## 1
Amino acid sequence: MPPDTTNYMLLGYTVVTVILIALVVYLVLKRRNLEAEIHTLESIDEEDNKNALKGSDMAGKDSPATSPTPAVHPR
Amino acid sequence: MQAEQVSPLDRYSPGRTRILNLLSVVTAISILLALGLALFYAGTDAVQGNVQKIFYVHIGAFTGGSTAFFITVIAGIAYLRTRNPAWDRLAVSSVEVGLPLMTITLLTGMIWARPIWNTWWTSDDPRLNSMAVMWLLYAAYLTLRAAIDGPERRMRYAAIYGILAFVSVIYTFMVVRVRTDTLHPCVLGPCPGQSTTKGSFAVEEGPMIVTISIGSIAWMLAAFTLIWHRLRMENLAERVRVLKAQVMGQ
């Protein structure tokens, strides 16, 4: 009759399951955060480009002779 | 710092995403199959009882972790030859996947040792010590990387470190096969210290061989899949860095 070491076996398999789930959850959450960050940064970049274009148009209308260079973005 | 351009190859293509999704499903099924075989098919050891079933995960996780660290070596060599940052991203992704797998190996070993050796850990055993040193070396890889200034310098040092650190993996694998004073069981292959090991068992029966083989393949597959996911994340992080540089007007 083998000794009853089932509790240790269960502890081992629990540890494995917890580590694997933690790893997968970490990957999912980190990826989600990065995608959200990319979305935000792309929106800011797009908005900045629009503003820069608008700024250069305005400058062109008001004083074409005094602003030969494109508008420089403040950031 | 000059913003690095993200290669178009780093962008997700639907075909690759489909392959990765399929690989993820196959990996999940394989791991469940491996666990199922270990629990219900391999049989119960007459001397150790159910705790011996931990060995199937213990060996499998070591195989997966070693595979991940070997990919770090390949990526390190490729980086030193090409200086392409994509290889560095693969190297760090592999370490970040290999380390949790080696943590599983360490912890399952300790849990098995408690009823068999009557202790969680012994500092006299060369296999246990080499395993601990290996784990610390790869943990230090991640810490040291973060501490080095300058991306090119960081990538170069990390590549060299990743290649050299693999010596610890080879030593950990070989130590029970060359040393005669180890307590750690040597399950596969001829081992000189077989008389001093405690808790050894022979892998001779069909179900045990099948379980160990399928388990090892499943854990290797898990390493590949997790590295691929982690690499995509690293590529996303690179894109964030590039976008931040753009927005900040650099």
Note: Chain B has six helices and no strands.
## 2
Amino acid sequence: MTGGQPALVVEQLTKVFGERTAFSEISFEVGHGEIFGFLGPNGAGKTTTVRTLSTLIEPTSGTAIVAGMELRPENGVEIRQRIAVMPESPGLYLRLSVNENLQYFASLYGVTDATTKIASALESVNLGDRGLELCGGLSKGLRQRVALARTLLSDPTIMFLDEPTSGLDPVAALEVHNLILELRKRGVTIFLTTHRLEEAEKVCDRVAILNTTLRIVGKPKELREQLFEKQLVVRTVAPLSEPDKIFSAIHSVLQWRSSEPSSYVLTVSDVDVAAPEVSRSLISAGADILSVAEAQHSLEDVYLEIVDSGEKVGEP
Amino acid sequence: MMGLDGARVRAVARKDLQDFRRKRTIVLSMSLIPLTYLIVAMVLITVLSVTKNGSGPIPTVPLLYLLLNPVMMPAIVASYSVVGEREQGTLEPLLSTPLRQQELILGKAAAVMLPTIVLSYAVYALFLAFVALFAKSASASAVFHDGPALVSLVIFTPLLAGWSIAVGMAASVRANEARVAQQVATLSSFPAIAIVVFMMIGLIHPHFLVALEFAVGLALLDALILRLTIQMFNRERLIVGTVPTRKPGGGMMSSNP
């Protein structure tokens, strides 16, 4: 979090549809200017959470403060004035031009100097020269970018982006990532739901993993450290003749296993201490070392660990 | 009405009119329906004879027949207005803006009302021009001297259109599919059609007092249905297809600005 009053405070929020619970008792905070990733498998309740926080649907219980306003029906208009939502589907009027679509939404937000704002928003998504084209003639990726431009028109305090790079090619996705990072510099809070874990890892300050209940919230690095033991992966030219004798003699090595011939995974207390000790011991034992490296766990590993375990881990 | 932003109502109406102009099926249906009524009215005034004194129901028939036009023309378009946005996937981004439901409903109603009124009055003007130029003099004289029928055309056109639009929008707000909304809207225009038919066959005589009474009643009914439509509008049901769940304490979180 970047400090100061949080842009978004969610406490014990629950949404139930009949017999089905979309999400249950979720609590988290998002700071101003923070990019907050909201991850989870299909049906985990991510989109319902966004719809609830953007006042489209009513929570069953719990409270939230969105852009400084309490999430209550009577505050709906004011909250929606302060936020912008980009749903997964761009939702553009295909028979209208890009400019006409944006002009419509600028009017609904009461944007003054709409022409300049529209031009600026289109420039931000590299569509400066496509304003007169009908949206029906644009590719899915370009429509996605127009929808993103639409969220920029009202200078929102919080932007809810639901799968913003869905359907985009890698170059277009990179441009969206850069735009999101640029928005953070301007102080915009971004609430990003995504399936793309590398995307979350790349742009998000913190992530939350949801699977009906909130499983974990934290910075990707902290989550990795919290969930996974520190490990070294050692590879040698030939299999060690007495690996147990070598590794057991090193204090910083807690346990070891051979993952494949000539490859050993060591659980260590401290990587920075263990790596040189392991190297020295192997050389002393006459082993030819190919590599000694820290085991890298991606956000995907964290995600799979959390979703598979089904246990609530909490905030680090 | 509390908290109504005229600029947003105009924005919704302007966008819908832009969208209608580019949708061939809407342009066709909104052109063919009045054209068909105009042709039939022209045939009626040409083939039917007037009574000796030039009065009676005959000149009233084609005139009142034209009143079916503002009943039928807007029903389909109005019934598509909200559920159509839902089917196109444009409703969610729209409802995520500060737009209030009454602004959305009124803007969409205005977008249907405007072409209906313009086209209906244009049809009346063309019909009267045809009568003046081509109808038998007795028929023309009877038509132009039938004050109550002429006044009924002017007064009842926006009111009957208002009925069709209000009912069509109510169906659009409640239905899960555009097709269902269109069927409901078409069925619900029958009472309005019945009133017009009763006037045509002489069961209701459209003298000034009757016209005034019906006009006031219809205006109140239009306002009531429009108000009910706004109250029925529920963002959650339109987005996810379910109504809000009751809270354990018993309160229903249904308020929906």
Note: The radius of gyration of chain B is 21 Å.
## 3
Amino acid sequence: MAQWEVVIGLETHVQLTTVSKIFSGSSTAFGAAPNTQASVVDLALPGALPVMNKGAAERAVKFGLAIGAKINQRSIFARKNYFYPDLPKGYQISQFETPIVEGGGLTITLDDGSTKFIELTRAHLEEDAGKSVHNEFDGASGVDLNRAGTPLLEIVTEPVMRSAKEAIAYAKTLHNLVRSLDICDGNMQEGSFRCDVNVSVRPVGQKEFGTRREIKNLNSFKFMQQAIDYEVRWQIEQIEDGHKIVQATVLFNPDTGETRAMRTKEDAMDYRYFPDPDLPPLVVTDEMLASIKSTMPELPEAKCARFVSQYVLSEYDARLLSQDSATANFYEAATKAGADAKLVANWMLSDLSAALNRDEKTFDQSPVSSAQLAGLITRISDGTISNKIGKSVFEALWNGEGQTADAVIEAKGLKQISDSGAIEKIVDEVLAKSAAQIADFKSGKEKALMSIVGMVMKASAGKANPAQVNDIVRRKISAL
Amino acid sequence: MSWNTFATVAETVAALAAKQVSAVELATHYLDRANGLQSTLNTYITLDRDRTLAEAKAADAKRAAGDASTLLGVPIAHKDIYLIDGWRTTCGSKMLENFVAPYTSTVVKNMSDAGMVTLGKLNMDEFAMGSSNESSYFGTVKNPWDVSRVPGGSSGGSAAAVAAGLTPASTGTDTGGSIRQPAMFCNLTGLKPTYGVCSRFGIVAYASSLDQAGPFAQTAEDCALLLNAMAGFDAHDATSLERERENYARDLAKPLAGLRIGLPKEFFGKGVAPGIAKAVDSALEVYRKLGAVTVDISLPNVKYSVPAYYVVAPAEASSNLSRFDGVRYGHRADEFTDLLDMYKRSRAEGFGAEVKRRILIGTYVLSHGYYDAYYLQAGKLRRLIAEDFKRAYEVCDVVMGPTAPETAFPFGAKTDDPVTMYLNDIFTVVANLTGQPALSHPCGTDENGQHVGMQIIGNYLDEARMLNVAHQFQLATDWHKRHPSI
């Protein structure tokens, strides 16, 4: 049986963070009542004309600079003509022959730590369509044009990825990049970041690409993984069964985990692209370019390197903490508040990450703020509480049971007992009831000591300083 | 009150300023006359007496309060392609038969801001596609000079209304001659400004890279006054020219001594009717007497202008008219089986034959594999034609020639042969392809008494000079002072 190689290219629609739409003054805010954010331009009334939103162009340029691409200082808007109810003009304004961004690329890091450079073909500006609303009206469908005209940057890669893992790593890296650049909110549930994945397979060693199928509109990394896995398996099976792959656009069904052809190349539409006569060429002046360059934020790669040197973190931790601005900002804020840099990293990447994942939140939505976490870590560092008590303080802060770690410690009386007199008293009480364990320990069973220490800790409600308890127990047993 | 229904805009301005007449009296007079001649000429698609009189009253109140704006209270009628908030805007089509505009076009807003009173919405070729006003869903407009003949198109109602004294002035739009050709057919002065001088916002688009708004009036002086109100940068139109407002009447009085008139040999060939050639020659003689000199020039690429135009205009139209899909507004078929069927039936029922023809041509030329051969090629020709003119303006100040190769023709004369109809645009489409300003002014009649227009094509943004040239001609002649006996 032949060995198969997978070939993947991605087209990602990134919704830009402009306050108003790409060609009208309507708001781009998500979730408003249907058609309340649609102006005469978005409704495509007769006589309405598009006017370019400069903010969208600036964001596209920012992206282009971040990936080392060529910025076309004169790019052209074109009309992509087709009929659909959610496309009010009967054409989508996009960029066809001359996009604003060409070339460039980004480096992805795989789980094994290896890296790969993913070349981009282009990134172009376009407007989003509206939404069809089904099942709300008896015998009819509705159209909501609030989303129509929302600015999108479509980012297209070369077919250079060779596995689902690489595709996911690329999508995640891109997702982090557009958020660090603050050009996209990255909200995948709301459709701010959607991927179309082109997949084909070919026998290892073959030069020509196989026929590709395009999986449309994937809005989660999990679905992307499932969809690619299914699609690759399906294509290999088809070929091995003697069938030919027909170029097609397919949809992924998360319920069945399968992809299904929506349309094949035979019924591909002729979009009749031509330059939009309503819009002059989009010109990026030298001044605009210089001003955007001067406001470029620190990019994830540079930030990672800085974290390694400034905070003495491992490459691995630094990468995780610098991948998006929400995480990086949280980290730096907590560190700045005086907490130990290494401990902040540990807490963020273990307990806090776990809690955030559990509740599907990001660092900028964390119920425990960077200041609260810093306060908590400081109290562990100075010995006020043990690491274990720290976890329960964390839980309390997460649940809003106190404004600061100190307040929680105070209210719950969690302060560590470091008074040796008090600890000795508890130890005496425990030893009095632990003749068997004492004998075990004396006969060489180290474990028995741990059992005694555990009982002391329990008796102190976890507040006794564990190191101190250990010392006192040892001393008292050997004195017996 | 007895009012000279053929008073010019300048005369109306003077009478209003002297309080010899009120805006309400003027509006009443023209509305009555429009209603009286509606069945004969069919110039208007929509009249709304209450709205018009309310505007006129407001204008009179402003004047009483000391407002002395030049055009305050002067009546104006608009081609039914301009959206006006609250007014039905049909574009001459069944598709928009019941469409009431929810916003106002910039040009109309500018004119209303200047105090002008809207008399009504004028008949036109459907979606501005036509040269004879025979494609209107609301019936043909009759030429007031001879009701068996066409008024020209597509702004036929705009021309007929001014010629018949139903309004002192009107607005039109010009995509391939739709102001200049009807101006000639109805013995008026009509101006298509430089592309970008008037905002296209709120004007139903036919061919976006060619469409331009402009005025119809009896004189060049009136056109200057009207353009002063219409023109101006508009942030709602990305193709609008961002520049200072100018006074287009500033050079009207300049003598023409030394003016160099370029006469392209391509405009004086065998395609031009003899009666037209004769009238144009006599008019050029008048210009020479006024001190102008004529220079023979050649614009070798203008022979490609009609083919280029009939690629570009339908291509853009096919896309611009896609929004009329029956989904959000406009005509929707009563019965349909599914979405595709709804599109097909709504558009098949809503659009007339000429509109469908141009959508089909446009869809074809933009199709995969044809784009390069047609649209791209047409774009190159536009640049070549513009270069011809650039060279011409090194040796002349304005270019002149007949506005159209034929005078007003009888109804039905060309409806069976679209190509002959298209060739009527041969001299006018040039200025749309290059974006230059062009006007037509009355300059005589042919052997049948039909009116001949002289076209003046100016260099970019040279409207003030062109209006000066036409005004000086009108001071020396009386062709523009003739009115139909209707």
Note: The interface with chain A takes residues 82-83, 89, 91, 96, 99, 101-103, 105, 200-205, 207-209, 235-239, 315-316, 318-319, 321-325, 327-329, 339, 343, 363, 366-368, 371, 375 of chain B (CB under 8 Å).
## 4
Amino acid sequence: MIMKTSWMKLSIGVVLMAAAHVADATLNVVATLPDLGALAQAVGGPRVQVACLAQPTEDPHFVEPKPSLVVKLSRAGVLLEGGAELEKGWLEPLLDRARNPRIAVGAPGRVACNAQITLLEIPTALDRSQGDLHASGNPHYLVDPLNAKLVAAQIAAAFSRLDVDGTAEYQARLKSFQERLDAAYAGCRKLLEPFKGRHLAAYHNSWLYFANRFDLKIDIFLEPKPGLPPTPAHLATVATRIKAEQVPAILLDPYLDRRSAEMVAERTGAKVVEVAQYPGSLKGTEGDYIKLMDANVRAIARAFASGREGGK
Amino acid sequence: MKKYILVVLFCSAVLASAETSPEVEQLKADLRNLQESFQKAEREHQRQIEELTRRLESLAAAGRSVVPTNPAVEEDAMGKVPMAAEGPPAKKWSPSDPITLVRSGNAYMNVGFNALLDAGWSTAPEPAAQLQLGDHDPSKRGFSIPNTEIALDGAVDPYFKGFANILFKLDAENQTQVELEEAFLQTTSLPGNLQLKAGQFLAAFGRQNTQHPHQWAFADTPLILARTLGPEGLRNPGAQVSWLAPTSIYTEASLGIFDGAGGTAFGFRNPGEPGEGLHGRATTGRNPRGPGDLLYVPRLATSIDLTEHQTLLAGVSAAFGPNDTGASRRTEIFGADLYWKWRPSRARGGFPFVAWQTEALLQNFQAGADAAAGLPAENLRDWGVYSQVIWGFRPRWVAGLRGEYADGNVGADDEFDVFRGERHRISPAVTFYPSEFSKIRLQYNYDRGEQFGTQHSVWLQVEFLLGAHGSHQF
């Protein structure tokens, strides 16, 4: 207890001390995707200025490589990228045109946020007849809150390297963010605890890490293969499985096709549940990773609960 | 109350000590050290967990019942979650799995292969002779393979990136021809927003000239581009410097300097086909007398986001250089291009979208006299425009419509020169993309020209891409 209060005092003091330095130029941070942007803002606070390349509702595999993004990249002091090929289709040519050595590969300003993450589903063979596989594994790793903790720590370390004066503030903000995340996570776990081991359907396989963290099985996909649109035959199989496993919900990212999800829902009685990987794509979650996790978990828990009532 | 005073005291102490910088420095250094050792421990912790999970899995592979059914990560005594990121992997590793060495991220070079296969029919018996001016267009009745290319790229070292496009195609007699389409290096770390490019590459003139045939929205080269920049596009050995203006609005200026000789610098020091020359005239095969005889290609482009979902890109370009139809004869080309694209922010796989692209060009070609052919010295002035709209109306489907017009002043040899004379073309097309790596396109061309009257053509084009993931460009 004594330890705790002295830590609090220290962190308040540290924050005040850092506030005296705010006059320094802010770090110009560009995040490829809004989830990384939200973590950067949480850790960086007023010391950083964060711009995201992708919009929250945009398909992260197919971000529009507008020339205005080149301008953003050309001014960046730090580039935060997922590092797991999610941005492979559009980031490289933008970087070529941005001519910014501060964020070149190997420069201190270039941060691949997967550095501390263990990626799952690394294909043993690269074969495009199996759909659009990512060679380095499933890239949607930030839907696991514990991965978000690791990435936030990595971002704080990168910021501290580039802006040594801000080290204390970054660490203080990191600590506070991780504590808030821990608390929210504990709440979320409790909410989903009763549904341990249950199956859920999703349009695309972007919820693997989330499922593992919360002991769910999100393993029924509307896409027959990653990146390919649903076929009637495949949807029929999916519907059969949904009924057999009593799956209450079909998870749908905002950029995916609502119609085929609705169709399966109608046939099976499952609900289409809007969940999102990117803060800002659900109302009220703008720039806030924790709020988004909370919203996702609540939506899923509600679907389970009402599914159970419906079953009675 | 007591706590509050304590905090205030502590803060003021801290603030006071901020004056004595060595202490602050010491504190900061300590914090950094702490942070580093904390991260080290964190990584070590995670590595150990991964190691353990791997062992568990191999045990599981050996004897299924050994592993507990739910290896879920439990919360620790403090009610906090452990810093491990590992859940049960979906795919279990077994010793018999192949070990993969090739990962795109680990290779020194990206390797890609792209092929365009054409089939079609035209009311013109020999479409390539009059209708289809581009070197990589579908060019004959039946089947043709006008463009397959090997694309290589990668970082050369910390200072350069290298690119190469080696092209194979079948000519009218189905003999294989090889072209070094592009081979250049590009700087990555010049200061001042500058970039240098050197080698053989497509000149930054307008919009479509820098694109490879498989990136085009239609199966063939727009008429006015083929007439002025040439059937193969304007590409030549040379160097280019470009600069990204440090403004909030995207603005890029570039200047390319090229050798300017041969069929890939069509309107310039181009000897033409043997025995045919250029625009009916015999060519001189002159050598450059000074730097003024090289080919210069300046360009200025700018782009703004009209709304969150609409982007406009506009540019002006020019090309200046000597041509081969006589001493001190020169050619100048001017161009303006406009590209507008709309895409909603909930686009799935990039669909739906609407894109409008227009280019207008004007060429002034000072043709020398050719007494043997009975042709006078004259200024051949050609102009033209194409405008195309493509609409991604549902995922994987794109409909397009292109209208073109080209004309010029009256020249002595117009009757026989397919690169001159009034002409227009209307082309509707529909393209289906089974995936990002293949496409099937059906296009109809309504052609009307002074030299050939009205002609109809239908082209079916199939593309496939192997290897490195192609990048989407704006």
Note: Residues 181 and 290 of chain A are 6 Å apart (CA to CA).
